Amino acid sequence: MKTSRRFGWLDALSPYSRLRSQFGQDAFRSGRFSRSLDRKLQQQPGSTGTFLLRWVGREGREIKTPPADAEMAKTIEAFAATSDRSPKAELRIIDGQQILRTIYPSLASELSCVNCHNQLQGKPTAWQLNDVMGAFAIDIPIGSFMQAIERQSRTIGIACFGAAAIGLTSQSCNFIMNKAGSGDTTISDAKRRSSRR
Asked: Fewest CB atoms less than 10 Å from the CB: which of 61, 63, 188, 197?
């Protein structure tokens, strides 16, 4: 699945950001929508196994949401330093939970986005088209996932063992019955042969 599909709601912002310049400076900013959506998505992962999605800026250059920790900041800066834009995933222990963290770079893909960010943040930032402006970071607690996998593995293991035991028992009984049946035929044949003599 493409990254653009995963973040389809973000793709919906692009046409608006292109048209926004026609409505003047007082027009609704797509960034306001994305921040409000971001707040709704930023709920701490709980025991239900929900995920946490953050749309973060580069450390020191963020508008609202900085990287959650030094490792996240380092990964985002690595995106900015290279041309490799493939997502990075790793298992981490965060607040005592095992977490699968996946980070996708967020690029300045529209000139209107670049202009708006430069206007909001001032000249020292000087964003340019296709700059890495931050990232989408997804934290998924895998404890509940691993427990579900463990339960499924046990169930499959027990089912396979039961099927093997039933098959082995059936084959053993079949073998014993055939042996016993072939032995009776041999004994009967032997009796008949001996009575003819």
From this structure: 197
